[in-house]
Design a protein that fits this description.
mainly alpha; 4 helices; elongated
């Protein structure tokens, strides 16, 4: 069975789940529920890791998928895609540093970088879902492999 056609929707699901878990983790920490915060953030990290593995496998096998949208949506799509890609590259070290500081018990340092890492993580996850729907459903060209 070829799994490639199932990977883009799985990746969108994982991105949406990562955003939900990271947002929930923020909600819990703001209410002093540190254990729930920790559980949500560990789950968000695990889901994002699964996404990255799936994403790298898919694009190693398929390559780039051309965007079929024309007109005004084209510059909008590529603007979203460009910011998504740049921030996704920035997100990885931000998250790793944030997690490392939390594990080391450096709460102040953890909070300082988490204030940057969380919005980037949420933006990348949400725009990942948006990019999926734009490229594979709303402006779908050729069917996914």
């Amino acid at each position: 069975m070829d799994v490639l056609p199932y990977l883009p929707p799985l990746q969108a699901l994982l991105n949406g789940l990562a955003a939900t878990l990271a947002g929930s983790g923020y909600y819990f920490v703001r209410r002093g529920r540190r254990q729930a915060h920790r559980a949500c953030m560990i789950a968000a990290l695990a889901v994002s890791t699964l996404f990255m593995i799936s994403y790298l496998y898919y694009h190693a096998r398929v390559g780039n998928i051309p965007f079929a949208g024309q007109g005004w949506i084209r510059p909008v799509y590529f603007s979203i895609l460009a910011t998504h890609v740049v921030l996704a590259a920035l997100m990885v070290p931000l998250i790793l540093i944030t997690v490392f500081r939390a594990l080391k018990g450096h709460e102040y340092a953890h909070r300082r970088i988490a204030r940057w890492a969380l919005p980037v993580w949420l933006y990348v996850s949400v725009t990942g879902v948006l990019i999926y729907f734009l490229a594979f459903h709303i402006y779908a060209g050729a069917p996914a492999p």
